[in-house]
């Protein structure tokens, strides 16, 4: 999936937010891919996140876990 209509983006974001354990989800297009970033409350939610993305007919090219930095945590607590 290298291109998404706004309706597809909105649907995917809505579907991801509906997954138990998902704190936040964003979709951004690059020139060659669509990046989906998901913040989880619990790691166990990752399997349902993957299933949701695959059900949207997307193909996952890369999956990686990124731990929040101290600055990320501080900013999140202040907001």
List keywords for this structure.
19% strand, two-stranded antiparallel sheet, 3 helices, alpha+beta, 79 residues
Please describe what this structure looks like.
It is a single chain. This protein is of the alpha+beta class. 39% of the residues lie in helices and 19% in strands. The protein contains three helices and two strands; from the N terminus they run αββαα. It has a two-stranded antiparallel sheet. A hairpin with a 4-residue loop joins strand 1 and strand 2 (34-40). The longest helix has 12 residues, at 6-17. The chain is globular, with a radius of gyration of 13 Å. The mean pLDDT is 86.
Q: Can you summarize the main beta sheet? A: 2 strands, antiparallel
Poorly predicted ranges: none
Chain-averaged pLDDT: 86
Structural class: alpha+beta
Based on CA atoms alone, the radius of gyration comes out at: 13 Å
Write a short abstract of this structure.
The chain is α+β, with helices and mostly antiparallel strands and 79 residues long. It has helices at residues 6-17, 46-55, 70-78, and strands at residues 22-29, 34-40. It has a two-stranded antiparallel ribbon with strand order 1-2.
Walk me through the topology:
Elements: H1 6-17, E1 22-29, E2 34-40, H2 46-55, H3 70-78
Antiparallel strand pairs: 1-2
């Amino acid at each position: 999936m290298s291109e998404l209509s706004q309706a597809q983006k909105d649907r995917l974001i809505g579907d991801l937010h509906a997954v138990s354990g998902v704190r936040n989800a964003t979709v951004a297009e690059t020139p060659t891919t669509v990046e989906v970033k998901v913040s989880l409350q619990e790691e166990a939610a990752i399997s349902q996140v993957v299933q949701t993305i695959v059900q949207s007919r997307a193909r996952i090219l890369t999956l990686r876990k990124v731990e929040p930095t101290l600055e990320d945590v501080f900013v999140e607590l202040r907001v």
